[in-house]
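User: Fold this; tokens only.

Assistant: Input:
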Amino acid sequence: MHEEIKKKVKNRMDKSIESLKEEFKKIRSGRANASLVEDLIVEYYGNRLPLKQLASISVPEPRLIVVQPWDKGSLGDIEKAFHKSELMLNPNNDGKVMRIAIPPLTEERRRELVKVAKGKAEESRVAIRNIRRDGNDEVKQAEKDGHVSEDDSKRSLDDIQKITDDYIDKVNAILEEKEAEIMEV
């Protein structure tokens, strides 16, 4: 019984970690990264589509993103989407492809981004603790219903706490890595 609960807890915590990694991909560092722009919503023939469905996105240099639309007629729409976005990036449209130079970040902007990253990491930690609470509640309910003994229940609660500690450590490690990436000049 408790193996089932532990497996469910781990799966949910894995999803929290994946979600955090996805969020961190969207936080700009000084480096070019395709994930920075791939989900940018573009108005194209009355439809709202993510950029990755309209163009190929490549990173030929550390500070350059190249967007090559499959339909050259969409370049203007893509450019408008960049100007409307909060990315604060200026695309250079040459009629065939769009080049987006990633400017170096100021020290102040780096600190702001680190704060954003810390906030996302804290949200992830809270989610993991909530998952722990749900797992603990399930174990306690199973004990109350007579499905597991008191000893097994105690062991399961300890296991869930160890799993939680491991995942909190993973969040902290991912955050440290992202902070280093943001602060790198």
